[in-house]
Design goal:
Layout: H1 5-11, H2 25-32, H3 39-42, H4 55-60, H5 64-84, E1 93-94, H6 96-103, H7 107-119, E2 123-126, E3 130-133, H8 138-161, H9 165-183, H10 187-205, H11 208-228, H12 238-249, H13 253-269, H14 282-286
Antiparallel strand pairs: 1-3, 2-3
Bound molecules: zinc ion.
The site of zinc ion (ZN) has 6 residues, from helix 10.
């Protein structure tokens, strides 16, 4: 554990950090397991390919321009995963200079990544003050759940229409990882993998616009869970994902959609999204 919380959050507390940033153990896992992080933007099918060669092997044969783009994606991905895993909290200041130091890149490069995260609403850019991990309000949180209720049944319909044994195998593989993380009681992995289940379904459904939206919505949901977690909150219940997968396997669209809507209700109702907790009437308190 170093005395630099931002570095710990991004690179993993207690994990020895190499001088040259490489894909760390914590980000390599999710990529290899095929969800939709950074590279997906460049190659939406990257996740369906067999395991990639190691980064050093790829680096040797990669032109400088591609190297720069990979570095960009890698930084994006590290910040994204740190948010998904609740290592970076809502409202955390992302100091450009520090990030440039941590990742060994220029501030201009960091600015590009922050702009992309801001475009996805994951980071908030405040003029004269800098970049902060987004802190969705209760109203935004309710909007996000409303959007998910509209998008996710459509995702499942399309996924079932286009279902192949390979797609089903990908879902089951992901579910195994999630169950394994629960058995190990690895809370960070559980949060990340359960969010990624939804992005994976959207990605497998094959509509890139839906997949992009779902990715943003699931990372925002992670921030919301962190902000508005009730003591008894659950993010995603593993058995509910399993039931959804079984409905998909049976091509039972109506059941899959119904289970998904119930699932979203369960997540939302486990949170304290009661407006009164945010709009405190100061006048009433101090008068
Ligand atoms: Zn879920």
């Amino acid at each position: 554990m170093s005395d630099d919380p931002l570095r710990d959050a991004l690179l993993g507390a207690g994990v020895p950090v190499p001088a040259v940033p490489t894909i760390g153990a914590d980000t390599e896992g999710p990529c290899r397991h095929g969800h939709a992080h950074g590279h997906a933007a460049a190659d939406p099918f990257a996740t369906f390919k067999p395991p990639m060669p190691t980064r050093s092997a790829r680096r040797a044969a990669t032109p400088a321009r591609l190297l720069r783009e990979n570095a960009h994606d890698e930084i994006y991905e590290k910040i994204y995963v740190a948010i998904l895993e609740h290592r970076l909290h809502p409202g955390t200041k992302l100091v450009e200079e520090r990030l440039a130091e941590i990742f060994g890149v220029s501030r201009a490069r960091v600015r590009e990544v922050l702009a992309r995260l801001a475009h996805e609403q994951i980071v908030e850019l405040i003029p004269q003050r800098g970049a902060y991990v987004a802190k969705p309000t209760i109203e935004q949180a309710l909007d996000i759940f409303e959007a998910r209720r509209l998008i996710e049944p459509a995702v499942l319909r399309r996924l079932i229409e286009t279902l192949t044994p390979e797609k089903l195998a990908r879902l089951r593989q992901h579910q195994d990882l999630e169950l394994d993380a629960r058995r190990r009681d690895d809370k960070r992995a559980v949060i990340r993998l359960s969010g990624e289940f939804h992005s994976l379904a959207a990605e497998l459904a094959g509509n890139s616009a839906l997949a992009r939206n779902m990715r943003e919505l699931s990372v925002l949901t992670c921030l919301i869970i962190l902000l508005y977690d009730a003591p008894t909150a659950i993010s995603c219940r593993a058995d509910e994902h399993s039931q959804i997968i079984e409905a998909i396997a049976r091509r039972d669209t109506a059941r899959a959609e119904r289970l998904m809507l119930e699932h979203l209700d369960h997540i939302e109702s486990s949170l304290k999204l009661d407006a009164t907790t945010e709009d405190v009437d100061l006048e009433a308190i101090f008068r």
